[in-house]
Each structure stands twice: as C-alpha cells, then as structure tokens.
Specification:
This protein is α+β, with helices and mostly antiparallel strands. It has three helices and seven strands, in the order βααββββββα. The chain has a single domain, classed as START domain (Alpha-D-Glucose-1,6-Bisphosphate, Chain A, domain 4, 2-Layer Sandwich), CATH 3.30.530. The chain has a seven-stranded antiparallel sheet.
Length: 164
C-alpha cells in the first residue's frame, strides 16, 4: 500500500443522457434531490436561499443532507462554468471536480476528489468512505437519468446498506 494515493481518487461513468442534463443534475436543488440528496439548499453571497430550480454559480454555498444520516455537509461552489465543469469543497477542505464530456452517444461524468488529508481518520472516512459513496451515487445518477429508478434506500429500519 506504499504506492497507494491516499490524497485523491477519480471516478468515471458513461450515462446515455444529454451533457446539459448531466450538468444540471449537479447544479440545482431539485435535480440533486432526484439522485443524490434528501435535501439540498444553496445560498448566494448575501446568504439568501436560491430557488430549488436555480443553478449555482461560484461563491454559492450549500447545506446538504442525505437520507438516514443526521450530518449536514457544508461547503462552497468554487467553479461553475454553466457547461461542463463544476468544483466544490467537500468533506472539510477537499475539492471535488466534476467534468462532463461527450463520447459517442454518452455523457462521461468524471468526478475527482482531491486534497484528502493523510491522517488515519481521513484515510478511512474520506478516501475510502467517499470513494465508495461516490461510486454508488454515480451509479444512481445513471439509473435515475437513464431509466427513472432511484436506487437509494430511504427506510430507516434498514441500515447500513450500500445504497444509503
């Protein structure tokens, strides 16, 4: 494991959907709640809450909640070009870059999480935990946008599962 990169990881998935649909899936509360979050709220620079269908821009902040978890993730959108790149802070000081490109009749969604600290807790919960979590949520993104099926478990009696 000495050559294992604990500081970052990259996940890619091909989704048969228009590129702009994939970009929008990440940039408004309504769309994020379809495949990723129980509750997504964004705030402008004056701390005014954005409408549920308003797309984010740089310096937008967020509060995110998942089904079956009490924790609230707080962060900031650092880049949002309205087309093919989004970057936000996540899990403390980490950065998540999401890029979108076209290959054949698919949109390639590539997620890179970087800046992961090297302490043991971060290695376990951020590097390994987030990598596993993002893998599931990217598959759920594909499922929701290609077929309409949300794979998330929302039943509090069934914990923990790979889909919550």
């Amino acid at each position: 494991m000495k050559d294992f990169d604990w500081t970052q990881f990259t996940k890619r998935i091909a989704i048969k959907a228009p590129l702009n649909d994939m970009y929008n899936a990440w940039t408004s509360s309504n769309e994020l709640e379809k495949w990723f979050l129980k509750k997504a709220r964004f705030f402008d620079e004056k701390n005014q809450e954005l409408g549920l269908d308003i797309s984010v821009s740089p310096k937008t902040t967020y509060l995110w909640n998942w089904f079956l978890y009490e924790e609230t993730e707080k962060g900031e959108i650092t880049k949002a070009n309205g087309l093919d790149h989004l970057q936000f802070t996540f899990a403390g000081s980490c950065l998540v870059d999401v890029t979108f490109s076209r290959e054949h009749d698919h949109t390639i969604v590539e997620l890179k999480q970087s800046g992961i600290p090297l302490d043991d807790k971060s290695k376990q919960f951020i590097r390994l935990g987030c990598s596993s979590g993002w893998s599931f949520y990217l598959v759920n993104l594909k499922s929701v946008y290609e077929g309409g099926l949300d794979l998330r478990s929302k039943d509090e009696r069934l914990r923990p599962m790979i889909n919550n």
